[in-house]
């Protein structure tokens, strides 16, 4: 049974297929490919999007408000200048729809604040958590972003007698 998942998506143009850091396709991490990255960069219709501190804070607020509306518990959230990581409980909604809710919520608030351009890249990555140990690992990974430019929110599940209690 899937108890939670970690979702990741990037801002537009900041992590292209072929990227020197590696890249993900269909859940598989692939090696850098300079020519593929170059082709993708040449096909970009907008400039690369890098979020400012103020935009990252607004995105956190928008995502947390949307989570309240979806009645979805967020265990950890890191909004970085070029990507977002989110660990959340599994709810009765397809993961793709959940991501759309969060991307749209952040986009709308940033547009209200004057953002003009393409905000998110297409798609997202998902990592399912089948048990508490896997969830704890995803939360820990997201928490590692505290030492970066990220705005990080951690709302850990209740911990009791060596195991998580998921509300």
Written account of the structure:
The protein has 167 residues and is α+β, with helices and mostly antiparallel strands. It has a single domain (4-157), classed as Alpha-Beta Plaits (2-Layer Sandwich). The chain contains four helices and nine strands. It has helices at 34-42, 53-70, 95-112, 132-143; strands at 4-10, 23-25, 28-30, 74-79, 83-89, 125-129, 151-154, 158-160, 163-165. Helix 2 (53-70) packs across helix 3 (95-112). The relative contact order is 0.24. Mean pLDDT is 88; it is low at 156-167.
The string of secondary-structure elements, in order, is EEEHHEEHEHEEE
- Biggest sheet overview: 5 strands, antiparallel
> How many H/I helices?
4
Name the CATH superfamily classification. Answer: Transposase IS200-like
Question: What is the name of the CATH architecture?
Answer: 2-Layer Sandwich
Question: Quaternary status of these chains?
Answer: single chain
Question: Which topology does CATH recognise?
Answer: Alpha-Beta Plaits
Proportion of helical residues:
25-40%
Which overall shape is indicated by the principal axes computed on the Cα atoms?
Answer: globular
Radius of gyration: 16 Å
Secondary structure class reads alpha+beta
Across the major sheet, the strand order is 6-1-5-4-7
CATH domain class: Alpha Beta
N- to C-terminal separation? 16 Å
Number of domains: 1
% residues in beta strands: 15-25%
DSSP E strands, number: 9
**Model regions low in confidence, pLDDT < 50 over at least 5 residues:** 156-167
């Amino acid at each position: 049974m899937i108890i939670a998942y970690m979702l990741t998506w990037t801002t537009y143009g900041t992590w292209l297929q072929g990227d020197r850091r590696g890249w993900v396709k269909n859940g598989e991490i692939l090696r850098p490919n300079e020519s593929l990255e170059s082709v993708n960069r040449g096909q970009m219709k907008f400039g690369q999007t890098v979020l400012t501190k103020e935009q990252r804070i607004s995105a956190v607020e928008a995502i947390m408000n949307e989570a309240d509306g979806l009645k979805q518990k967020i265990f950890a959230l890191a909004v970085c200048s070029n990507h977002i990581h989110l660990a959340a409980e599994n709810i009765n909604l397809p993961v793709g729809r959940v991501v759309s809710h969060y991307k749209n919520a952040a986009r709308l608030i940033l547009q209200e604040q004057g953002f003009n351009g393409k905000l998110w890249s297409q798609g997202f990555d998902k990592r399912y958590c089948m048990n508490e140990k896997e969830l704890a690992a995803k939360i820990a990974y997201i928490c590692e972003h505290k030492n970066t430019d990220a705005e990080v929110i951690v709302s850990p599940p209740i911990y009791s007698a060596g195991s998580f209690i998921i509300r």
